[in-house]
Amino acid sequence: MTTQIPYVTLNNGVRMPLLGFGVFQIPDDQTQQAVEDALEAGYRLIDTAAAYENERAVGRAIAASGIPRDELFVTTKLWIQDYGQDSTERAFDRSLDRLGLDHLDLYLIHQPFGDYYGAWRAMEDPSRAGRIRAIGVSNFYPDRLADLITHNEIVPAVNQIETHVFFQRTDDHELMREHGVRHEAWGPLSQGGQGFFDNPVLADIARTHGKSVAQIALRWLVQQEIVVIPKSVRPQRMAENLDVFDFQLTKDDMARIADLDTGRSQVFDHHDPAGVKWLGGVRFDT
Ligand code: NAD
Fold first, then answer.
1. For residue 267, is it within any domain?
2. What is the torsional sign of CA 239, 245, 246, 249?
3. What is the Cα 26 distance to its own chain's centre?
């Protein structure tokens, strides 16, 4: 039986699946198969990025699936080197071309560095023309998000940020809720780091529900209506990660998980000047 994935409604009325499939770090030559398997398992939201250099393979999988376009929700992201009015429009066209699509469901500014104002204003235009159903941002900390919202016309529909049991982002979540920005979690399994799959608290809660640690961590997010996009190239894990809608975490479970928050990124510190400088120099074949 295929799992029914709930949808959330974004601030412009567009509906987005609460759970999808991420393709970061899946090599180009494995991506088509992985996305075909994910679609077969029941995923309908696919999250890629120009910087993942696998948009073409995602596009081939979508075409091969035969699933009607309006049943899919495709997200891609604009990389820093392409920020700015003209370059953003060109990068958007190239992404659509690689994906083999005539519109995107969600287009995100990948990082809050460089000329993201120029990028945002360029993205506001085609969204009006109907080639992007929703626009949003990624990795925007509360100060940058508040700044972007204050000085622009369209409020981002989504902010995709690292969120998992070890980095819970409760202040970010509250700010996004106040402004109607949907919280989307990347790295929902902490990319397996910090002993994630052996965590005793998660393992104990998993036992009481007859579920896996991954399912508890994903349930904890979707129960807060945070969109999740776990990644796996293994069909069995794809199915496991989808199977999180037939149980509820209790108040006690939620309180125990709240205690796991370290308040720190496990992956990248967006406030570290050396990291910001380094990322600004990372270029991709977009
Ligand atoms: P994740 O937290 O989804 O962890 C993925 C890893 O967990 C995989 O390598 C896999 O080995 C393992 N895994 C998955 N399911 C499992 C299971 N059921 N049991 C045991 N192990 C399992 O990490 P991620 O891929 O970094 O994040 C998910 C998606 O978020 C990405 O694919 C990408 O689409 C997006 N993302 C966005 C950004 C950004 O800057 N916007 C950054 C990173 C990731």
1. yes
2. positive
3. 15
Distance in Å, CA 228 to ligand 1 centroid = 10
- pTM for this prediction: 0.98
43 counts as catalytic? no
Assess if residue 263 is contained within a domain. Answer: yes
In the chain, the number of structural domains is 1
| Residue of 21, 23, 24 to mutate, ligand 1, most atoms within 8 A of C-beta | 24
Whether 44 maps to a domain, the answer reads yes
User: Which of the residues 43, 52, 83, 116 is marked catalytic?
Assistant: 52
Q: Which two tokens stand for residue 65?
A: 């699936």
193 lines ligand 1 (CB under 6 A): no
pLDDT tens-digit profile, the chain (286 residues): 567 999 999 999 999 999 999 999 999 999 999 999 999 999 999 999 999 999 999 999 999 999 999 999 999 999 999 999 889 999 999 999 999 999 999 999 999 999 999 999 999 987 667 899 999 999 999 999 999 999 999 999 999 999 999 999 999 999 999 999 999 999 999 999 989 999 999 999 999 999 999 999 999 999 999 999 999 999 999 999 999 999 999 999 999 999 999 999 989 999 999 999 999 999 998 8
One-letter amino acid at 230 equals P
Indicate if ligand 1 lies below 6 Å from the C-beta of 18: no
Domain that holds residue 46: 8-280
How many angstroms does the Cα of residue 255 sit away from the middle of ligand 1?
24
CB proximity list for 93: less than 8 A, separation 6 or greater: none
β-pairing verdict for 132-138 and 227-228: unpaired
CATH number at residue 29: 3.20.20.100
Residue 129's CB: how many other CB atoms inside 10 A? 8
For residue 286, is it within any domain? no
